[in-house]
Specification:
Layout lengths: L1 E5 L2 E4 L4 E8 L6 E8 L6 E8 L4 E3 L7 E6 L4 E6 L8 E9 L14 E2 L3 E6 L1
Parallel strand pairs: 2-11
Antiparallel strand pairs: 1-3, 3-8, 4-5, 4-9, 5-6, 7-8, 9-10, 9-11
Length: about 120
């Protein structure tokens, strides 16, 4: 699976951004589609994920209630709507795909074998 992420940018605290991930080369079957982020000096951390198809959604506690992940199976895209952004949300955001994902591993980066190139999100205070 090839993934292309877009939509990052520089915003102020409280603003919103919408990230999009276009997937190509996906075969049939269940996939976990996730968003992760990484800040300088920190490990890559889980943000949100959804099961494709099916739609079950999972969020990190730090973004629950502010971020929403959604998938469009027909268009092969996964979006991350980010509202009420905070400076601590500043990071490079990556989309990732995990074929035949095991739900217990959906928050684990090593469960994903395809990654997009990353898009920078910067939130100023």
């Amino acid at each position: 699976v090839q993934l292309q992420a877009s939509g990052g940018g520089l915003v102020q605290a409280g603003d919103s951004l919408r990230l999009s991930c276009a997937a190509s080369g996906r075969t049939s079957g269940r996939y976990g589609m996730g968003w992760f982020r990484q800040s300088p000096g920190k490990e890559r951390e889980f943000v949100a994920a959804t099961i494709w198809p099916g739609g079950s959604k999972y969020y990190a506690d730090s973004v629950k209630g502010r971020f929403t992940i959604s998938g469009d199976n027909a268009k092969n895209t996964v979006a991350l709507q980010m509202n009420s952004l905070k400076p601590e949300d500043t990071a490079v955001y990556y989309c990732a795909a995990a074929p035949r994902v095991i739900l217990s591993s959906i928050r684990v980066p090593s469960a994903y074998d395809s990654w997009g190139q990353g898009t920078q999100v910067t939130v100023s205070s």
